[in-house]
Amino acid sequence: MPAASSDWTVDMLDALPDDGNRYEIIDGELFVTPAPSDLHQLVVGTLYSRLRAYLRPTSVGRAILSPSDVRRDDRRRNRVQPDIFVVRLTENGRPSYPFDLRDLLLAVEVESPGNSAYDYQIKRNLYLDAGVPEYWIVRPEARTAARWRGPAEPAELITGQLEWQPAGMGAPLVVYLPEFFEDAFG
To answer: Which domains are present in the chain?
Structure first.
């Protein structure tokens, strides 16, 4: 949920206590979300492990878990932490940290009750407008995923097979959602 002030900086975030909440700022506006649920974390862990295994043998990208910072142009007033993201590798390996939105090949949020507008509107616009090629929102309660492939593209609601193949990969990552959720929750 957004806070009243729009003058927040990364330095101010760093001074906040570690209370389990997630604090992010976009253009100086503070957004606070509560600590994730166990279902949220089970989905995050399962998806991260699949992305990691898919990407690890290649030099295309690396899967990253949050808390891990991603920033954009005004790095002093912008810091988000996607639940999972894939950072593009270059000849020199990973880009320098904190990562820039332009370094991402994929951003994933796992929906939490109470912050859906933040994920579906604010963060979706942030990621896609910055050029992140693909954005997913995974919905544990519904056992579905929504996928966007550009700011002008409509969402795809996926209930069966979710595929992702970034440039440079010989075959797609295939996530069969019914089996995936059974793995995550079982």
So the answer is: 37-185 (3.90.1570.10)
